[in-house]
Amino acid sequence: MPSFIFLSIGDELINRLPPLNSLKCFESAARHGSFNKAAKELSVTPSAISHQIKGLESFLGLELFRRTKRKVILTEAGESYLRPIKSIFEQLENATSELKSKQKSGSLRLAVAPAFLTRWLMPRMERFQERYPDIQIEISSSTGLIDFSANDIDMAVYFGSGDWDDVEAHYLRPARLAPVCNPRLIKAEQPIDRPEDMRFYPLLHVTKRKDEWHDWLQQHDLDPKLFRRGLMFSSGSLTAGAAAQGLGISLTDPELIMPEIEAGTLKVLFNQHLITNRSFYLVYEKRRSVTSAMSAFKEWIIEEMVGNTNT
What we know:
Elements: H1 2-16, H2 20-32, H3 35-42, H4 46-60, E1 65-67, E2 72-74, H5 76-103, E3 107-112, H6 114-121, H7 125-131, E4 136-141, E5 155-160, E6 167-174, E7 178-181, E8 203-206, H8 211-219, E9 229-233, H9 236-244, E10 250-252, H10 258-263, E11 267-268, E12 279-285, H11 292-310
Parallel strand pairs: 3-4, 3-5, 8-9
Antiparallel strand pairs: 1-2, 5-12, 6-12, 7-10, 7-11
Helix pairs in contact: 2-3, 2-4, 2-5, 3-4
GO molecular function, one term: sequence-specific DNA binding
InterPro entries: LysR-type_TF_proteobact-type, LysR_HTH_N, LysR_subst-bd, WH-like_DNA-bd_sf, WH_DNA-bd_sf
Pfam families: HTH_1, LysR_substrate
């Protein structure tokens, strides 16, 4: 009967295939050139990796690795076997990702740096919701790079040079950093009419971006050594907040401090922006299927960025 014939064929096929765990161990060990690194990646012991590899070699009747004291090296048969195995795992990953994406095509999970989230994105989200009322969006703040394989985040906004591993990065816009301060900081006897006039006031720095003030001053043919170093903070949003409190002058993106500018607690001193290789990027995991919600958000945020550039 057809059902028994089908099961019989399936059993024969299964019996002709090596165990999946053995193939996973083989692919990982081959990629790393190490049983120890493969064990760490797969959260098992090196002896378990060795056992699985030996079982696979016994199943195939071939030696896949040459063992040395410091590393393992693929044999010619191992190299030949690795190529299709690697391709099969990539197909499995893509098929799984595509299926999961289809199930949540009407939703989007987004991770964004806190300052960009509260200062730029949130004031504009109403426009996104008006255009795409059926897309459910969940936003979280994040200060570091996202491990997309370890969580459910679909997309993120990164700030940097755009050369991150294992992500597709779509350029949004460059950072536009200009000197800003609270107008009350400026003394009547020491006005700030030219960039060199800032030497009478403390310059606020971001700890991990100490070069920004140095570069801005040099772009204007000024000697950084002549300027006062003020307090240092862990983020640009903190330096902007300190500037609003009258603690000094910060280099800040004016688009991220519009409420303070409109309220008069911050003032852009000069519209000469720092030329830098750091920009904002929309990123998502490489090789994953792009859902309709992801595509809609990408189109919308790029349009918003272009609109702000032209205004």
